[in-house]
From TrEMBL:
The chain holds residues 453 to 732 of 732 of the full protein. It comes from Duganella sacchari. Coiled coil: none annotated. This is Diguanylate cyclase DosC. Residues 23-277 form the EAL domain. The lineage of its organism: Bacteria, Pseudomonadati, Pseudomonadota, Betaproteobacteria, Burkholderiales.
């Protein structure tokens, strides 16, 4: 038993080392990702369920280190958060997405809003509103064409200061959405205090509808609640025609998911417009 124990211990150490090394490699690579031009944004269309038209796109970050495999955000956003690199990366994301909004508008491809994710650290960063204002001014993106997505969990951790930050952004004319709605513990009274424009129903409530009657009931309740408060509802992770039809019956406003399109490059999205695969 002792030998086995030691063996296990060794194995554990090796695994730890591998993971630490991995993390250090990621961290040092990430430090230069912006300046080396290794980051890119993909865009996932947001479709108006009543008209079938695209009204916006969510920007989703990808990292392509030189000569290596594409790294998805779940593998590096947390490290970017812990190291503080998210602040410069986040500014790059915002700037790139706002420039893209202006480019689509100029090319008369689409008059669409762009949605950008904000992490916890970015949201709490002093001067966030000034940074957003600067990027909007530099790029020429109208504030009302930018939507910032903040998760429910981040808002609920410090609801009072969150409400103040949201108010400053809202005063600038920026649209605000609560991301992953339903996964945290928002109370309705807090929701009322936040100057938000949209709720995004988390994918976990969408994937098993309409068959799962509990999830169907939750989706229906969230949509009714949001509408009673004058909010727009976006369903995430819509993959099937059945899900789309069911959400449309529930009067859900917008949807995004693989059924409509995976996140794709700005060029691919432009081509989809030109070929009429996505309606504007
Ligand atoms: P999220 O904001 O909830 O984004 C939705 C995720 O669901 C994206 O994963 C998207 O590709 C994926 N998705 C979209 N449609 C479907 C579908 O129909 N089925 C399934 N199974 N998945 C779908 P992605 O791009 O890997 O991003 C993961 C998370 O990383 C995001 O979750 C967001 O929290 C974070 N993230 C992405 N880009 C950024 C960024 O620029 N800044 C920050 N702070 N976080 C980001
Ligand atoms: Ca999001
Ligand atoms: Ca989400
Ligand atoms: Ca999520």
């Amino acid at each position: 038993a002792k030998a086995l124990g030691r063996g296990n211990y060794q194995f554990y150490c090796e695994e730890m080392n591998a993971r630490t090394l991995d993390r250090l490699t990621l961290e040092s690579g990430l430090r230069h990702a912006v300046e080396r031009g290794e980051l890119q944004l993909m865009y996932q269309p947001q479709i108006d369920l009543a008209s079938g038209k695209m009204i916006g796109a969510e920007a989703l970050l990808r990292w392509q280190p030189n000569g290596q495999r594409l790294v998805m955000p779940d593998a590096f956003i947390a490290i970017a958060e812990e190291t503080g690199l998210i602040v410069s990366i986040g500014e790059w994301v915002l700037r790139t997405a706002c420039s893209q909004q202006v480019a689509w508008h100029r090319a008369e491809l689409a008059d669409v809003r762009v949605a950008v994710n904000l992490s916890a650290r970015q949201f709490r960063q002093h001067g966030l509103d000034a940074m957003v204002a600067r990027v909007l001014a530099d790029t020429g993106c109208p504030a009302s064409y930018l939507e910032l997505e903040i998760t429910e969990t981040v808002l609920m951790e410090r609801p009072d200061s969150a409400a103040q930050t949201l108010q400053r952004l809202s005063d600038m004319g920026v649209q605000l959405a609560i991301d992953d709605f339903g996964t945290g513990y928002s109370s309705l009274s807090y929701l009322k205090r936040f100057p938000i424009h949209a709720l995004k129903i988390d994918r976990s409530f969408v994937c098993d509808i309409p068959a799962d009657t509990d999830d169907a009931a939750i989706a229906g309740a969230v949509i009714a609640l949001a509408h009673s408060m004058g909010l727009t509802v976006v369903a995430e992770g819509v993959e099937t025609v059945q899900q789309r039809d069911f959400l449309r019956e529930l009067r859900c406003d917008l949807a995004q998911g693989y059924y409509f399109s995976e996140p794709i490059s700005a060029t691919s999205l432009a081509n989809k417009f030109i070929h009429g695969e996505i309606q504007k």
